[in-house]
Amino acid sequence: MDGMPPPTDHPSPFASATRPAGARDPLVDGLRVVALGRVVLWHTFAAPWLSWIFPAMPVMFFLAGSVLAGSLLAGSATAGRGPVDHLRRTSRRVGRILIPFWAYSLGVLATMLIVGHRLDDAESGATGGWRLALSVVVPLHATSGTDRDWLTGHLWYLTDYLFLLVLLPIAVLLARRITAVVTVALLGLIALEVGPLLDLPGLTGAARVGVGDLLCYGLFALLGIAWAGRRGVPPTARTSTARAAGGTALIAATLVAGRSFPLPTGSLNESYLLLAVSALGWLLLIGAAEQPLRRLAGRPGIATTTRAVSARALTIYLWHPAAILLALTVAPDGPMAAPVTLGLTVLLTGTAVVALGWVEDLAAHRPPRLWPGVRSVRSRTNARRIALGTAATATAASVIAVAAIGVSGLVDDRTGRVIASIPRPSDRTALADSAFMAMTRDTAVTAADPAELPADDLQAALELWIATQPEVSDAVVSVASGTRTWSGNGFHPDGEPPAAESSVGMASLTKTFTAALAVQLAVEGLIDLDAPVPDLPGVDPLPDGAAITARQLLQHATGLVQYTDAPGYDPAQVYTAAELVSLSTRAPLAHPPDTAVTYSNSNYLWLGLLLEAATTSDYATLLHERITSPLDLRTVGLAPDGRPGWVGSASGGVTATPADTARFFDALLNQGAVVPLEGLQRMIDLDHLNGGLGVWPMCPCGEGPDGRRWATGLGHNVGDGAAFAFPDDRLAIYLRIGTTGDQISADRMIEMRDQLMVLMRETARRIDDVGN
To answer: What are phi and psi of 621, to 5 degrees?
Structure first.
């Protein structure tokens, strides 16, 4: 959610009255480079703690406002102040942004046409056509919060910056009343974030993002303008002390608030209010140390470097996501992944700067240079001829590189999985709703209907994926979001279409149904998740008096071996659930309870017996009365036992259509319609073994500043399929993959399963959820 630095050869906003007009301030260059570096780090790793270290985006708007105001003030002394002069100045500034953007958008457009994507996912048909064409000329990716593509999601800042350019005279007038502006902006942000908690009218979707940008980032642009307009002397010791104390207090307040009210994924970028307060604190600290920081930034070696990087900030920002994609594609797994990815990102971004940075020079009417500070070509005329002559080659090379990224992201397993391991740059979806409302919901989303699911896109994506997988004979996918459901299938021409609407065995996805029942009973006080499981009829006790809990059963943390691996198991014998559990309890534990995860069907068979004992109802009745009937999941049932060597029951006996399975995961984990929110929070909290209660995380995942673990998706995998809910997207997806006769390893199946899940999620999340 970080933004792009603007062009930078303007007067200093931090300058004292003795600094010559038009002189560069090394502190401005230094701050821009620090902020830009934090942007690249965030987009590379998306670690939530990075957002708390330095709020780069508000600082960038502060610098943008101050630099533009400094330019306006300097220009006013040598040119007219009328509307014609303002229009001329504005058009030149706009050109300095748009020309590099056009070079970038040509590469992105070619890439998306090659891989079958559109620049704007929210529209289709004729409307989408003109939006696509216009978005290549003017950035239209900014305010809706729905464009999360790797190559365009970060362009939202261009729109906001262009608005600042056009409205600069009005902004200068407002900056003269900066105290009132700060008060109004902060009150507006409080109302935007906290108002919904008080049942006040609130905004969601694009309207909320637009107002939030105006209040938060507009505030910092005006603060920058106000700073540029001052003609004061360096701050006194008393002023510096007050700024340092105030800045420290504000930053501490945001840290306390973030710890007391954890944001959904732990990122400061999810709350306009906390982001603004934190950034105000940082600016106060910078103001307190203004003179020492300027002296540090003005040292010859530092100043030369920061000035050169700052002069190419726009190119760096535009092209660094493509560099990250390439780096992720080729970086190795293991402990060296992070440093190698970062190193390759820096190297590839530098390559883009050398290849295309001269476009910034052309846009600014300067002689083009391969690198700032390096001697330009002998004459401007020759330089432009050479630049235009090499433009086709440079652009073609860039297009090929970016296109290779997009193509490999669709057809290469490893690339798809690695790219999916971190969030998209500037994924602003969380800002479309109040972060404080999300905290009170404990990640459960209210049951609002989204717009229609993109059925044609989902079917096309599924068929394309199957066509690129020679081991896959067919696949079935269902997507649920509120009351909207889509189901589809695909198969190779020489195969047979799988049934997308027939009930089939859900195998171990049954365990999530069982976990939901267990949590319901725990909330009602009928079972205690942390008490030793009592003796149950027909179940032999564990050896040496060992005890296990229902929580450990839910998390496969008991150490029970799989009954098929227990001594005495006979695959030809017909068993009861208690008999299979007893086979496992008589065998030595694989490890002490609660020290590791050992997946075992015996855990959930035992849990089913516990639920039946606590309610005096059989499992099928519990399933019907507590889940399928309230949710109207008419196809969900229970397969009869009696098959030799196997008992389904609470471990693997549920049957359902793919659509009803997706609906169940959506109702459970997105809508909070199966268990009370108190119980849902227990269910989705990931413990030290990285598991919840009957659900497992799908990455991107990590740990917030409060130590709480988070994950993009929660659900369950099973051999040839999976079902996961994605609360941030209000989506739940079920999939099942059929294979050809060739032997496929378990690891390869996992790769294909994860890749298809990511592809279906990325396609389904193109819902225009504005207003819901």
So the answer is: -70, -45
Q: Of the given ranges (190-194, 379-383, 549-553, 596-600), which has the lowest mean pLDDT?
A: 379-383
Nearest to 584 by CA among 645, 544, 613, 541: 541
Residue 438, classed as helix, strand or coil, is helix
The sign one gets for the Cα dihedral 2, 706, 671, 659 is: positive
E strand spans, 650-739? 654-656, 696-703, 709-718, 721-726, 731-739
Q: For residue 754, which of 717, 702, 714 has the smallest C-alpha distance?
A: 717
Spell 738-753 as b/e; 16+ CB within 10 A means b: bbeeeebeeeebebbb
Q: Do the Cβ atoms of 657 and 719 come closer than 8 Å?
A: no
Predicted confidence (pLDDT) at residue 119 exceeds the cutoff of 50: no
Averaged pLDDT for residues 413-417: 43
Please give the full DSSP string across 141-182, using - where no structure is assigned.
-SSSS----TTTGGGHHHHHHHHHHHTHHHHHHHHTTHHHHH
The gap from C-alpha 590 to its chain's centroid, in whole angstroms, comes to 37
pLDDT of amino acid 561? 93
Pairing of the two strands 721-726 and 731-739:
antiparallel
Report the C-alpha gap between 313 and 317 in whole angstroms: 6
First to last CA, the chain: 21
Rg (CA), the chain: 29
200 — pLDDT class (breaks 50, 70, 90): low
Within 8 A by CB and 6+ apart from 701, the residues are: 686, 690, 709, 710, 711, 712
In degrees, rounded to 5, the angle at the alpha carbon of residue 542 between the alpha carbons of residues 537 and 548 is: 90
Q: Are 132 and 118 contacting, i.e. CB atoms less than 8 angstroms apart? A: yes
pLDDT digits (tens, 9 = 90+) for 278-309: 999 999 999 999 889 989 999 988 999 999 99
Cα–Cα distance list, 246 to 31, 64, 250, 284 (Å): 20, 24, 6, 7
**719 falls in which pLDDT band (50, 70, 90)?**
confident
User: What number of other Cβ atoms are within 10 A of residue 111's Cβ?
Assistant: 24
Angle at 511 between CA 665 and CA 590, to 5 degrees: 140
Say yes or no to pLDDT of 551 above 70: yes
Q: pLDDT tens for residues 13-35?
A: 333 333 444 467 888 899 999 99
By the 8 A CB rule, do 240 and 289 touch?
yes
Give the CA-trace dihedral at 489, 492, 493, 495, to 10 degrees: -90
> What pLDDT sits at residue 188?
92
The DSSP output letter for 332 is P
Beta bridge partners of 714: 697, 725
pTM of the model: 0.59
Helix (H) or strand (E) holding 349: helix 337-356
Q: Report the share of the chain in percent with pLDDT over 70.
A: 74
Q: Given a cut of 70, is residue 512 above it in pLDDT?
A: yes
Helix (H, G, I), strand (E, B) or coil at 266: coil
Burial of 525 (0-12, 13-18, 19+ CB in 10 A): exposed
Residue type, 202: G
- Long-range pairs for 169-175 at CB < 8 Å and ≥24 separation? 169/86, 171/65, 171/69, 171/218, 171/221, 171/222, 171/225, 172/69, 172/72, 172/225, 172/229, 174/222, 175/65, 175/69, 175/222, 175/223, 175/225, 175/226, 175/229
